[in-house]
Structure formats: C-alpha cells, structure tokens
C-alpha cells in the first residue's frame, strides 16, 4: 500500500512554494508586487544555504545509521567561523588558507567523534554532545571575550552579494547548487555512498559483504565535521561578524531539516536533496514567523506545531505488526 | 565463584557499578576541595541544588530504558516554573501553592502524554518529535511569563531549602523514595515490559508485550518527573523565568549515560542515573572550588564529562587487546 507517491524532497519543495505563495496574503508581506516577491524568495533561499550546508554533514551521519547524529556541528560552525574571521583579517590572499584550516579543523573534530563512537563505543548522541562542550570550551578560551578580525572583501563578494549586477542571485545560492550536485554524486555515484547506505541499513550484513564498517564510520564523522567546518566558513562570509553562539542555533534545525526531507533518522534511507528542501522549508517558516512580527512565545509554538505536522506526514516509522 | 568478580560481570550485571566509582571519586575530590562538605548545612545546600537534575535524570532514564528519548523535559520544567511563579505569586497562600503543585503534576503528565501520543500511537521518531514539542512547551512557558519575574512565597521556598528531617536533607528522602519505588517497579510486570520494549520493540511485540502502551507510558512518567523537577527548581529559586529549564535537557541525558544506561535502551536502571546526575553536579562544584580560570571552566567541565564517558570504553579496549 503506497499512499504517498510523491518523493519527500519534492513534497517538501512544493510545500515551501505553497507556503511562500500563501504568505503573500499576510498583512505586511509582498502582496501583489512580483519584484518584491522575487527578491524576498531569493533572500529566503540565501538564508537557507547555511542551514543547508550544515545539514549536509548531518545527513551523512544520519544515513550511516546506528543512532548516528552530530550534535557538535553547531560548535564546529562557530569555531571555524571564528578561525576564518581571525585568520583572514580582511585580506583576500588569506581566504584559501582559511578555507583549508576550517576544513581540516572540522574534519579533525569529526575524526575524534568517530573514534569515540567506533572504538570506545560511546553512543553518537552523547559523544558528539560531549565534543560540542569541549569545542565550545575551546572557543571560549580562543575568544577570550573578544576577537579582532575581519571578513575578506572577496568572501562577501562571493557569498553575500549577487553574482552579477544583472542577475540578482547571491553567490551563496550558486555555491549551494554546486555543493548539492557534489553531495548527490558522493551519495549516489561513489563507493563511499553505496557503503554508507549499506551500513545504515544493517551493519552486520554490510560487514559480511566486505564493507569496512570501522573505516566508514570514521570517514563519515570526519566528513560531517569537515562539512560543518565549511558551513562555518560560509556563514561568517555572510554575517561578516562572529558571535560565540553563531552556530548553535543551526544545530537542531539541521537535524529537523534532514527529517523533514524524508531521510530516515534510523538510517539507511535518504537524500541530500531532501535535506536541502527541508532547510528551505524550515528557513521559510522561521522567516515568515519573523515577518508576521509575532511575539517570540507564539513564534516558538507555531514552529513546534508546524514541525510536528511536517514529520507526521513523512517521519512515521513502520508499524509493529507487519 | 571466581567468575562472578570479573570486570565484565560487574559491568554487565551491575550497570551502576562504574557510576558508583565515578561518584565516589567525585565525592572524594569534592571533599578534598571543600572539607566541610558533609556538614548538615553544606550537604543540604548541595543536595537541594542537585535534586531537580536527579528528578529529570530519573524520568529520562525510564524513557531511555524504554528505547526512547525526551528532549522536551526542559520545556516542561519551564512551563511548571512559570505556572507556579505567575499563579501562586510571591504573596500566595500555602493552600494555593499546593493546589498549583497538583495542577503542575497534571500539566507535566499531560505534556508527556502529548509526546507519548505522537511517538507511540502515530509512530513518529522520538528525538525529532520531542524536539518539536520542546518548542511548543518553551513557547508556552514564554507565553505565560514573557519576562522573568513573579515567584512563590518565601516561607514555602524555605520549606524546601531548609527542612532537614532527622538531620538529612529533604532531597535525600525524595531520592530514597524514588529508588525504593523503582526497585519495586522494576520487579513488576511493567518493569519487565519496559526492558523488553527498550531491548527490541518488535520482539517484545511478538511476545505479546503491549509495546504501544508501554511506549506511551514512559513519556507520561518523564513528563511527570519533569514537573516534579520544575516544582523543586521553583522552590529552590523562588522566582519565575521561562528560560530556566532550557539548559537542563541535555544535562539529564548526559547524567543518564554517565549513569551506565545504554543510550539505545533496554540496559540500566535508575540508581545509576541518580548517581550520574550527582556526579555531573559535583563536577560543576569541583570546577568552581578548584579556582580554575573562568575562561577554562567550560572546557575543563566538558573534558571531564567526555573522559567519564570514555573510561568504560577505554578499559574494554585494553582488556580486549590483552585477551
């Protein structure tokens, strides 16, 4: 019995479009002005990029199964954002080095996560939660209350500004599209991707079929850390300033984006397209609630309620009776 | 009989064995840094601070044992705190306070029932469901009390803060009662069901365990325990703040896992998590007594927690190398 024939990513995307069109009827929204509507849509897409990139690593660890989850993503984002900010100091020629350091630092933290989970048998939730605390502690020491630095002009140019005066699409969206294609290739067209789904479905059968489960686990968490590190680099390019809590607000939404996109939280099934669509839906809802100028309390309740409805549609697990 | 004393036997048969070592270690270090720790006053002032987390950890332990997770408990704590602070008020009567304590317990169980309904009956994933409801509950708390303020009468707060029947802190008795109740519950049919559902829900279902009802019940218990934690926290602080519970959720999960329960369910108990919660709170004490540079506090605390989580794994790793 197949009730839903539309794949979750498409459904989430349709939902986002419908929500956006409906939002036109809101009192202080774009109304009937197509130009304003388009610029608002681009803006929401641009904001989705950062959640989307941070959700990429989350997608990988969740697909890898075995209660896979990365709660250190938020603090890695903050750390690499601060590192980028401090290293670049407004100079374009430091940007490549900053990207490199962000990726390496992220991957190293991810590797530590993977090692704890694989060798010490600590559950991913607690391991990455503990790591998040360690990274936050490191940030506080590194930061010491204030950091001096500056984002390079080229980062702002490539990430936050439109790609050309005539095409009003911010660079971040283009980066995200390329990123999405790369993630798709990684998941669907490489051995790594095949093995990832295999260990997500069943670790024992994967191992018996010759998959190096230990290596895959280490690689997945390292890659998740690396992607979060990249997310931090992108994020600081957009915000231009760093805060000690810069990345944390993205943490649980990144898990929610994965779930809304139809990836099974128990692993073995999912896609990055889904997470991208999920990131757009979540960012859209959040920014709509902000536009409606509701008090924070109502905003939180509506967000919680919407999330419940969204996961009720796609997040249902198999019945016990089969 | 020699077999019975092997490390594996202790670890598997008594999941609370390692947490006990940790607790004793934490107590010893704390005693070294704070020699008057076992004085009646100091003991009480420590225990009354520890109790809310202990209560949350017990609820979370039941949920994890049953194979779920509840990250909305912080939100429930906040709701209870704001209800008590706004409805009872600083000049409320004791009768009013007890009346709202009862209402709070109902609210907590109801919040848990909402979680349980979505997870057990609609079969949604626990982590994302309780994440969504944590927004609902935190939002509701903020709706009830947008700005910190209000409170409960000082004499009632003092009842919690200063009563030490027979020289022992009130929190001590509460914890003892919880452990007694658990030792009874774990031997009942419900206790067996709980372990069965947490171990493998499909297998439990096939052996005629009412899986759905057990799953539903664990969230009600968790909500109820969160309400108790909220009441204790409100009596401790004496005032209202809608953000008061936010930080406690992840701590409660860490406490349960330090307490030796398996994150994936089916293994553990309640004594371990209680010790885990106390250890976690003692670590906080140790950090503040050790006069560590403020900048280093977060890192030091996190490192100790990661170490506490890693040690059983490291021991197993070394043992396997040798074997």
Strand order of the largest sheet of chain B: 1-2
Total helical elements of chain A:
13
Share of helix of chain A, binned: over 70%
As an assembly, this protein is: heterodimer
End-to-end Cα distance of chain A, whole Å, is: 12 Å
Please trace the helix and strand order of chain B, writing H or E for each element.
HHHHHHEHHHHHEHHH
Q: Largest interface, with Cβ-Cβ < 8 Å?
A: A-B, 50 and 54 residues
Order of helices and strands of chain A: HHHHHHHHHHHHH
**What is the helix fraction of residues of chain B, given as a range?**
over 70%
Taking the sheet with the most strands of chain B, its summary is: 2 strands, antiparallel
Rg of chain A, nearest Å: 20 Å
The average pLDDT value of chain A, as a whole number, equals 88
Brief digest:
Chain A is an all-alpha fold. Chain A has helices spanning 8-23, 34-63, 73-88, 95-119, 124-143, 153-160, 171-188, 191-201, 203-208, 213-239, 251-260, 272-291, 296-314.
């Amino acid at each position: 019995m197949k009730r839903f024939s539309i794949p979750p990513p498409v459904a989430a995307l349709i939902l986002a479009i419908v929500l956006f069109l409906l939002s036109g009827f809101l009192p202080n929204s774009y109304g009937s002005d197509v130009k304003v509507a388009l610029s608002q849509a681009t803006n929401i897409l641009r904001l989705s990029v950062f959640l989307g990139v941070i959700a990429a690593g989350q997608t990988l660890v969740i697909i890898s199964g075995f209660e896979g989850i990365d709660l250190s993503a938020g603090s890695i984002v903050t750390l690499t954002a601060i590192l980028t900010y401090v290293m670049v100091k407004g100079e374009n020629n430091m940007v490549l080095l900053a990207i490199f350091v962000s990726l390496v630092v992220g991957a190293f933290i991810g590797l530590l996560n993977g090692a704890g989970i694989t060798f010490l048998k600590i559950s991913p939730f607690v391991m990455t939660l503990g790591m998040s605390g360690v990274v936050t502690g490191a940030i506080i020491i590194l930061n010491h209350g204030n950091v001096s630095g500056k984002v390079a002009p080229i980062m702002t140019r490539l990430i936050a500004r439109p790609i050309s005066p005539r095409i009003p699409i911010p660079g971040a969206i283009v980066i995200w599209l390329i990123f999405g294609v790369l993630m798709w290739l990684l998941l669907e067209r490489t051995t790594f991707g095949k093995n990832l789904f295999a260990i997500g479905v069943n670790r024992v059968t994967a191992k018996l079929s010759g998959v190096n489960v230990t290596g895959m686990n280490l690689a997945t968490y390292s890659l998740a850390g690396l992607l979060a590190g990249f997310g931090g680099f992108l994020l600081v390019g957009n915000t231009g300033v760093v805060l000690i809590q810069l990345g944390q607000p993205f943490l649980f939404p990144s898990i929610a984006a994965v779930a809304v996109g139809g990836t099974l939280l128990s692993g073995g099934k999912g896609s990055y397209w889904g997470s991208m669509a999920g990131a757009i839906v979540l960012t859209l809802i959040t920014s709509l609630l902000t536009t409606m100028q509701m008090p924070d309390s109502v905003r939180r309740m509506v967000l919680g309620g919407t999330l419940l409805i969204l996961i009720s549609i796609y997040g249902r697990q198999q019945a016990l009776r089969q | 009989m020699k077999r019975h004393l092997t490390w594996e036997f202790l670890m598997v048969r008594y999941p609370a064995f390692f947490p006990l070592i940790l607790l004793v270690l934490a107590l010893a270090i704390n005693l070294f840094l704070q020699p008057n720790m076992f004085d009646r006053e100091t003991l009480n002032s420590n225990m009354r601070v520890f109790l809310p987390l202990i209560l949350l950890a017990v609820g979370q332990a039941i949920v994890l044992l049953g194979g779920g997770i509840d990250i909305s408990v912080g939100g429930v704590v906040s709701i209870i705190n704001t209800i008590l602070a706004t409805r009872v008020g600083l000049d409320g009567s004791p009768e009013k306070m007890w009346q709202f304590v009862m209402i709070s317990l109902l609210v907590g169980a109801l919040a848990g029932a909402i979680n349980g309904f979505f997870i057990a009956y609609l079969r949604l994933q626990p982590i994302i469901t309780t994440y969504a409801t944590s927004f609902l509950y935190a939002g509701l708390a903020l709706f009830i009390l947008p700005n910190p303020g209000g409170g409960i009468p000082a004499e009632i707060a003092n009842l919690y803060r200063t009563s030490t029947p027979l020289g022992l802190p009130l929190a001590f008795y509460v914890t003892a009662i919880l452990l007694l109740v658990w030792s009874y519950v774990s031997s009942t049919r419900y206790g067996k069901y709980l372990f069965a559902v947490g171990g493998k829900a499909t297998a439990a279902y096939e052996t005629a365990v009412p899986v759905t009802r057990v799953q539903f019940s664990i969230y009600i218990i968790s909500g109820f325990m969160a309400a108790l934690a909220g009441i204790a926290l409100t009596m401790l602080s004496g005032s209202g703040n809608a953000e008061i519970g936010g930080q406690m959720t992840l701590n409660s999960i860490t406490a349960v896992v330090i307490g030796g329960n398996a994150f994936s369910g089916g293994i553990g108990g309640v004594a371990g998590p209680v010790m885990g919660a106390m250890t976690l709170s003692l670590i906080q004490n140790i950090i503040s007594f050790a006069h560590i540079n403020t900048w280093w506090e977060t890192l030091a605390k996190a490192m100790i927690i990661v170490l506490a989580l890693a040690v059983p794994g490291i021991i197993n790793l070394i043992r396997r190398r040798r074997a």
